[in-house]
Design goal:
By secondary structure, the protein is an alpha+beta fold. It contains 6 helices and 14 strands. The chain binds one DNA strand through β10.
Amino acid sequence: MKLATWNVNSLNVRLPRLIAWLAAHGPDVVCLQETKQEDAKFPMKEIEAAGYAAHVYGQKTYNGVAILVRAGLASADVVTGLPGFADEQKRVIAATVDGVRVVCAYVPNGQSVDSDKYQYKLRWCAAATAFLKDALAHHRDLAFAGDMNIAPEPRDVHDPALWEGQVLFSPPERDVFAGWIGLGLKDSFRLFEQPPKTYSWWDYRQLGFPKNHGLRIDHILVSGHLAQRCTSCTIDRNERKGEKPSDHAPVIAEFGER
DNA sequence: ATGGCAATGTTTCATTGA
C-alpha cells in the first residue's frame, strides 16, 4: 500500500496538479488538507475519472479534509471530526482502508504563541491525542497522516535558532508531537535514512523554496505494527516546483503486504 | 531545474496561512 498526505492549499486551484500527481504516483490512499470547498463542490467526477473514490469533510474558504481511495480498494467506518470536541472547523476525517485505520488531519496553525488560536491549537491537539489513543486500542494498523503544523525536532527546521519558541516549533507543540510518539506511533519518515534538510513546507515569500527555508510539518505517523511493514517514506519536493504549486509537498509512505 | 506570496471572499482590501 502506498499512502500519501498533501496539504493542497485549495483543491479548486490544485486539481490539475492533483490529477497529474495521482497518475504519476498511483497512490492507494491520499489524505488531503486545506481543500477549502464545501462537499457539494468537491470535484467528485474528476476524482472518479482519475480512478479514486473520496470521503470528504469540507467547508468553504478554510480547512477541509478528504481521503481518496483507489478504485477497487474497500473503505469503511468513516468518521469526521474529533468525537467529544465541538468544532466548527473541519479538520479530521478517518476511514479504514484495506485493514489500515487512516486518520487524516489538518492540525490548527496556531498563528503565534500569544494568540487565542494557539490555545485552540493546544486544546485541539489534546483532543486529537485522546482520539488517537482510543483508535490505537482498536486498530493494530493505524496511520495518522496530515499537516500537523508541528516541526518535531531542530533538524526539521531550516533555522532552529530563529524558530525556537515560535509557533510550529514551540516546546508545548513539540511536547504534543512527543506525546503522539509516546502513544506508540512512529514517525515513518525517521524510520529511514534521509537527506539532510528535507522539509515539507516552504513559505511562498522571501524565496523560501529556492533557499530551502523550509519546515517539516507534514507527517505520516504509524502504529508500531504498521511500522514493521513500512518500506519507505519520502517527501516529493518536485511537487513544490512549477506552475501554481501548493506551499506544501506531498509525503508518501509505502507498506509491504500483510 | 526552483524564484521574490497565495487563496478566498467581502473585492479593489482584509484575513489567514505557517
